[in-house]
Design a protein that fits this description.
Layout lengths: L18 H11 L5 E4 L6 H5 L7 E4 L3 H16 L9 H8 L16 H11 L5 E4 L4 E4 L21
Parallel strand pairs: 1-2
Antiparallel strand pairs: 3-4
Helix pairs in contact: 3-5, 4-5
Length: about 160
Amino acid sequence: MDNWSYSNGKNFIETSPTQLEYLKMIIKNFNIKSLYYDNTRGEFEAFDEQGLLPKQMNPVAFTVKVKNGMAIAFDKMVERKQLMLPDDERLLDQICSVRNDLQAIESSKGHGDAFWSIGLALLGVPDLIEYHEEEQEHQVRMITTGQSSIFSDDTPIPAGW
């Protein structure tokens, strides 16, 4: 959503997309129950005060505690091989731009945007392990993007990883 306006107050228009109208459309089309968004600077607060945000949208301020929780969730997903990431240079660069102290190196491509977007998405998945009582076993669920993953056994690891 780089350089997208926040809202036009109308329906989503493909030729001039806006963030709020797009989010409303995907919430409806994909039956999204919960969507976390970065509220650190409060860009959507005026819309919230006017009652224009869907109830599914949940604000998250990036405190140290929240950032640590997102990083831990991200780490667990990668370690368990439950997360598939597409081989996209900007995405991977932005993930790698976040340092161990959770500060992001700023570049012309952003400042860890993909890392924080994935972290926000993982906040909406509190437990990625389903327990099947009748089968008495756990089933690990996978999060995918519908593209080949950089972690796939049959895909070479991209340059820089």
